[in-house]
Amino acid sequence: MIRVLLADDQLLVRAGFRALLDAQPDIEVAGEAADGAQAVRLARELRPHVVLMDIRMPLLDGLAATRAISADQDLADVRVVMLTTFELDEYVFEAIRAGASGFLVKDTEPEELLRAVRAVVEGNALLSPGVTRRLIAEFAARSRRPAPAEGLERLTDREREVMALVGTGLSNEEIARRLVVSPLTAKTHVSRTMVKLGARDRAQLVVLAYESGLVLPGWLG
């Protein structure tokens, strides 16, 4: 059973999400938080698999709450999905860097929300290629010279190559076609790279790919 914590200051929004999630045989709502501080406290108390976190909340905003959850070693298995009103919310990129596994717009289709919850539990990041490219472009606009990522020297040449392809927004299947290997082999390379670099999920691997200089703005086309 996938346990979900809802964190949103709007009661009606939480009620809508609860009704949808609780109707699924494999998902249950473990708790609700009306502000970021309560979200962090309940995450530590309830240990949910997924936190659906609104970005703008009182007392402690979703970004700060996500950072607190991601920094807590006892909550290493908790995945945060940010909820935003607009897809290009100004805080989305900071949320990914803070440790969020992805983000969803609040008016997303119910099926997409359910797919998202199940996807992050399986270790996948909620970043489509288009979103990935926008995130990298945003980072390029805000950053100066790339700094080497810690642990990058532990990667094999193939793992560096795969990491760069992840950073440009390619899926495992697309990476497999590019390298002429099986999707399972591509997934294995991605997983090993994440382990070596200590990346929580694919979203953070994308950020590390750019920060290390493996991906450059000009590659975005």
UniProtKB/TrEMBL annotation:
Residues 3-121 form the Response regulatory domain. SUPFAM superfamilies: C-terminal effector domain of the bipartite response regulators, CheY-like. Residues 148-213 form the HTH luxR-type domain. Keywords: DNA-binding, Phosphoprotein, Transcription, Transcription regulation. Gene3D superfamilies: 3.40.50.2300. CDD domains: LuxR_C_like, REC_NarL-like. It comes from Streptomyces katrae. It comes from the Bacteria. The modification 4-aspartylphosphate is found at residue 54. The keyword Phosphoprotein applies. Pfam families: GerE, Response_reg. This is Response regulator transcription factor.
